[in-house]
From TrEMBL:
Pfam families: DUF8175 (PF26526). Residues 201-255 are annotated as: Disordered. This is DUF8175 domain-containing protein. It comes from Actinoplanes utahensis. The keyword Transmembrane helix applies. Keywords: Membrane, Transmembrane, Transmembrane helix. The chain crosses the membrane at residues 12-34. Residues 69-197 form the DUF8175 domain.
Length: 255
């Protein structure tokens, strides 16, 4: 994998559909700001990090004490930076699974966002396109990593390198993409606020390239990609370490 220098704003895995010549799945509105209801947005995150960044212990797919209405997305996180990382990770995974456009979608949006459901429609429209086209996106955040750009008791901006498997027909493809995700502390929980556009967002790997297959990167390649992306990037506690751990990793991420 080659290192990307800089990118503008979040580029999620839905855009992989364009690379696969299927359809531009969820590119619609993905860079749109999720406006908050009645509160002032936190300031943009800094674009540089100190060489020595805190180390966090985060299990992708876990972290909340309850489950949202979909029965899958964790909610009710601890009020610290590790809770914020887990929330940002799990909310992006929830979107990747298309949970936002299921019959309970409105209730789910109300549980996980600090925004009115109306402001999510541009994102949800892209998800509906994917569902109607028969594309399945299988999130594997534990295959990627994260970088804390800013975190305080009120808000956090987490750069996520999320990997997923795109399934359309008999040829699965793996892709890893980035999204700088802002969460805020509201109603005694971390809530999704918006996606941040950063002018100098150093990310691991090839953000729009798809790789045939449905297996994670080897552990040494994942770590090298994270290291090369700059300070502060780290892997999840349940990152797969070898082929034998892959099945266990998938089980954890789908809970």
């Amino acid at each position: 994998m080659s290192k990307q220098g800089a990118t503008r704003g979040p580029r999620w895995g839905w855009m992989i559909a364009a690379a696969l010549a299927i359809i531009p799945v969820l590119g619609v509105g993905i860079g749109t700001v999720i406006t908050s209801s009645g509160s002032t947005p936190p300031p943009s995150a800094p674009t540089t990090l100190p060489e020595e960044s805190p180390r966090y212990v985060v299990v992708a797919g876990q972290g909340g004490s309850e489950r949202a209405v979909d029965g899958k997305t964790p909610i009710r996180y601890q009020h610290d930076c590790e809770g914020a990382i887990a929330a940002a990770t799990n909310y992006v995974s929830s979107a990747t699974r298309m949970e936002w456009v299921r019959p309970y979608g409105d209730k789910l949006i109300g549980q996980i966002t600090d925004a009115g459901a109306e402001s999510m429609e541009s994102h949800r429209e892209g998800m509906r396109t994917a569902v109607n086209s028969g594309i399945a996106l299988e999130p594997h955040p534990e295959w990627g990593g994260f970088q804390v750009l800013a975190c305080d008791p009120h808000s956090a901006t987490i750069n996520l390198w999320e990997c997923m498997v795109v399934r359309s027909g008999d040829d699965p493809q793996r892709t890893c993409t980035t999204a700088a995700t802002v969460v805020t502390w509201a109603a005694d929980d971390w809530k999704l606020r918006r996606y941040e556009t950063l002018p100098e967002d150093h990310v691991p790997g090839d953000t729009l390239d798809a790789v045939p297959g449905d297996a994670p990167l080897p552990a040494d390649q994942r770590r090298e990609a994270l290291r090369a992306a700059g300070p502060g990037w780290q892997e999840y506690s349940n990152a797969p370490q070898d082929v034998e751990n892959e099945a266990s990793s998938r089980s954890l991420s789908s809970r």
